[in-house]
């Protein structure tokens, strides 16, 4: 079984009323069946913020989504002091510090697979980004 990290944008699509919501849910179920899934607190922070500010989804709705659709199935990687040291190196590949922290969490946990539509991760050595 492979370990896969799930980025914010995937969860945002699952949390918002998009046309192809069923395809995201089906993809998530497939990943859960075949892999161990991970995310971190940076992703949850971005999910809450973007869902509210960009899509006007109330915080309570997003928290319920996290409680029912993420936490029971996807492990949350902690952020550690060592992530900062790894992040400093990864910043040369990622424009956003939050993306570099995601990549550092992945590297520390020896996770190479990432579900994300963010093409910036394609430049990070050791990360294999995939999307629907």
Task: Summarize this structure as a short list of keywords or feature phrases.
6 helices; single chain; 54% helix; alpha/beta; 5-stranded parallel beta sheet; Rossmann fold; 132 residues
Task: Write a concise synopsis of the structure shown.
Helices cover 54% and strands 15% of the residues.
Q: Would you give an account of this structure?
A:
The structure is a single chain. The chain has a single domain, classed as Rossmann fold. 54% of the residues lie in helices and 15% in strands. A five-stranded parallel sheet has the order 3-2-1-4-5. Helix 1 packs across helix 3 and helix 3 crosses helix 4. It is globular. The two termini are 20 Å apart. The relative contact order is 0.20.
Topology:
Layout: E1 2-6, H1 8-15, H2 21-34, E2 35-40, H3 41-55, H4 59-70, E3 75-77, H5 81-90, H6 97-108, E4 113-115, E5 128-130
Parallel strand pairs: 1-2, 1-4, 2-3, 4-5
Helix pairs in contact: 1-3, 3-4, 5-6
H-E order: EHHEHHEHHEE
Let me know the average pLDDT: 94
| CATH architectural label | 3-Layer(aba) Sandwich
CATH topology: Rossmann fold
- Taken from the alpha-carbon principal axes, the silhouette is globular
- Structural class call reads alpha/beta
Q: Which range best describes the helical content: under 10%, 10-25%, 25-40%, 40-55%, 55-70% or over 70%?
A: 40-55%
**Number of H/I helices:** 6
Can you tell me the number of structural domains? 1
Instruction: Classify the beta-strand content into a percent band.
Output: 15-25%
CATH class: Alpha Beta
Cα-atom radius of gyration: 14 Å
Say which CATH homologous superfamily is assigned: 5'-nuclease
